[in-house]
Design goal:
Three copies of one chain form a homotrimer.
Chain A: E1 2-8, E2 14-17, H1 19-29, E3 34-39, E4 45-51, H2 55-68, H3 82-91, E5 94-100, E6 103-104, E7 110-116, E8 122-131
Antiparallel strand pairs in A: 1-8, 2-7, 3-5, 3-8, 4-7, 5-6
Organism (chains A, B, C): Fervidobacterium thailandense
Family (chains A, B, C): Belongs to the UPF0047 family.
InterPro entries (chains A, B, C): UPF0047_YjbQ-like, YjbQ-like_sf
Chain lengths: ~130, ~130, ~130
Amino acid sequence: MLKKFEVSTTRRVEFVDITSLVRQTVAESGVLDGICVVYVPHTTCGITINEHADPDVVADIVNKLEELAPRNGRYAHIEGNSDAHIKASLVGSSQTIIIQGGKLLLGIWQGVFLCEFDGPRKRNVFIKVIAG
Amino acid sequence: MLKKFEVSTTRRVEFVDITSLVRQTVAESGVLDGICVVYVPHTTCGITINEHADPDVVADIVNKLEELAPRNGRYAHIEGNSDAHIKASLVGSSQTIIIQGGKLLLGIWQGVFLCEFDGPRKRNVFIKVIAG
Amino acid sequence: MLKKFEVSTTRRVEFVDITSLVRQTVAESGVLDGICVVYVPHTTCGITINEHADPDVVADIVNKLEELAPRNGRYAHIEGNSDAHIKASLVGSSQTIIIQGGKLLLGIWQGVFLCEFDGPRKRNVFIKVIAG
């Protein structure tokens, strides 16, 4: 089963919690055991798994990525968003999660985030469920 | 096939070689061709694949991650482990490895590591084998 | 279906666009729906997905990784390529891409790159297609 969702981001850099979209897709698929791949078809955007209880955790990750690859650094790419491309490769375009007994095997503190690095924009997320 | 292992870490930051757990799970599964997903359900812990011959390689990776996201940096999250969350997102919560002829397609120098960033603790690792 | 390709790199650090190898493997497999895992069995090499239209994007990613983990930094590993091992763990050994209707679900700007961090060398890339 493959589903596509549109996510609207509201700031240049923003982590959007999409855990409920992933859970909902796995539930709809009826798959009891398998894996789930969450993928963004964008080059200035990523997917990560991290704590979604305290929003300060995501804020600290965002700040550190900005420190490592500042928006206003010296880059060759003329569009002015090289920092976003770099952050996307550091975080990765997808995450794979295990499904057991019809449920995502996320840890109690884990959430799935779409990582916007060059918003605000409308972004697509693909969620693929594979039985096995 | 899905297996869960408990790994005890002994230091705050430590990469534990879990290659043998992964090999053993693939062997037990009887799957000849497919993929294997190694996943940690924690937000201050990751999975990476790198050299497991010379322990200095892992030491250099650990030191660099500490340099990029120092434990005592300025963070918002009050639990004092933001560096560990950041490192987890840089390294990733899982790795996917190909299975061919009943064996993991790891390179000769490659090992699979559980990356502890906020230990010592007892950690869970899930290993999922998918035929295909 | 599993295919192995050899990629020759020509510089110490170089991102080689292997998107056509991935597309060709998916087409040959005849798989209409599923996933594709692109994997390097090396510890000083990675796989990333990023923009393959403007080569300046890749140049900026390469430069930033060199800045974060300089070749001539202070490392313990005596082979002198610790920076390459670090970069490999930051970028990751594999990427997973969704297949829909027989095609890779890559975004319009996305390409798949083999990231050479310690070349020039002959490198292997494995591409595994799983139906589902």
